[in-house]
Amino acid sequence: MDKKTTLGLIRDSQQILSTFYGDLAQPSVKKVGIALETTVEFCTSILLPVKYQSEKWKLNFQKKLNDYKDNLEKISEEKIIEVNPQIGAPILEKLSYITNEEISIMFINLLTKASSIDTVNIAHPSFVQIIERLSVDEAKILNNLDNKDFIPYVNFRLKQNNLKGYIEILGKGTLLQFENDLLFPQNINTYIDNLISTGILSDKDGTYKVDEQIYVPLLEKYDYEGMKSKFQSKFTEFKELQISKSYFEITSFGKSFLIACSQK
């Protein structure tokens, strides 16, 4: 393939789409072409060898394109706009090699939001970098945070007799690792720390929700009464099992991110 032909391939979204779709006249395929026309020009590094990629690569990338195409079918053609390459180019790059479903869906949903005149305002470029920083488990957690404003947590601390200090036996315990099918539930605190560092969550340590019923499921799951009885009856060096309650708040930025990367 000579340089002229190569550049033509890259700069013509219709030619690229023809690699994956036989009939470019399909309304849904046409929408993909309209939305990605400019973005394709900035994707030479990933789309240059599109005709020479392995079948496995093509099938993986085509599945992502199909998912994106299906999303665009729900948007009328007059509302389809060209995606800002600042968002579109890095997303296409990631979709060319990512195989995990949870992460892919977030990228595709963000790309969809950037493709409509009605939702382009919520597709912030920084969201691309945030998705890049997420593990599979963190993506699962976020996908289940729809319609939530906060995540309650509890701390259990053993107060020692005649000493001012205490021993923490449960730090910021939530229900997240029980509510989500995580690959590594033991890493839940690391996941939460990362979500805080991205600005999606905020730790409201020192404050708590007045409604005590919010914390009942946590006390039951972590067996507060059973644990208290155990330490009071078997370990005389401890005075009491103290409990403190607080919550992680989903920030305004975090809510915007969840909306932009969800199916809504």
From TrEMBL:
InterPro entries: Abi_alpha (IPR025506). It holds the Pfam family Abi_alpha. This is DUF4393 domain-containing protein. It comes from Chryseobacterium potabilaquae.
